[in-house]
Amino acid sequence: MGYSKRFTIFAHIALIGSILIIAFPVIFALIVSTHTFQESFAFPPPFHIGGNIVHNYVAAWNRVDMGRLLFNSSFISVAVSIGKIGLSMLAAFAFTYFGDFRGKYFFFILILITHMLPLPIRIVPTFELMDDFHWINSYYALTIPFFASATGMLLFRQFFLTVPDDLCDAARMDGAGPMKFFWKILVPLSKTNMMALFLIEFIYMWNQYLWPLIVTNTNDMRVVQIGIKMLLAGEEQAAEWNVIMAGTITAMIPPLIILLLMQSSLVKGFVMRQEK
Predict the structure, then answer these.
(1) What is the mean pLDDT of residues 138-166?
(2) Exposed, middle or buried, 28 (CB in 10 Å: 0-12/13-18/19+)?
(3) Which pTM does this prediction carry?
(4) What residues does each domain of the chain span?
(5) What local confidence, expressed as pLDDT, does residue 154 receive?
(6) In CATH, what class is 68-230?
């Protein structure tokens, strides 16, 4: 057996082992979600699919109104992703193609500095601002504060810098104004970056827990991550891990679907860019 073949076998074994280690918590959560309350506390734990799957998922769905929580998380994640992409592209467009306004680099650095501030520092002033606007316990507070993004602006600015100047000059000669150049040329060219940022921001917002916990005070405005916490019983009752894991697996389905749908588009975008 040659060195190359041995290395290939070793690489495949290492890859399969890594995948199993990473996926084990999800696999075990899926297994626990199919067992009864007593079986979820058994030792050694069961490593086979149980027969209580329907009861556990129905109990998790009804106990915390999972349908409402999934809708809230989906709406917030999509709204923030779209809003962040739009605002980031417009900001990047201004910093790239309108380089003659005063204080350009000052404002650019100022925006980047905001990204370096830790989240706890921004929570208190942002909450006070939402309270002044009377937006507490509303979709406005759950979405609008996340629209501004230094990361998204930097991502699109770096891409816009790679667009040839001749393309901008040709559009200007054809009578295209700045916004027409933006919509007709830059936006179609940025589809891959837009999908990448949408995927990242959707998953990021889907996993938000602290901010929705602070700015919401009714169950109909809660998100799915808080719903998982609500499935935990009080101190006087043992946690029903079979139901909790059923709720956790349910909460993983929407971002998994988005990932599978966006993955195909991302691959096509990368392939088209390499062919060009």
Answers:
(1) 87
(2) middle
(3) 0.85
(4) 1-63+234-276, 68-230
(5) 85
(6) mainly alpha
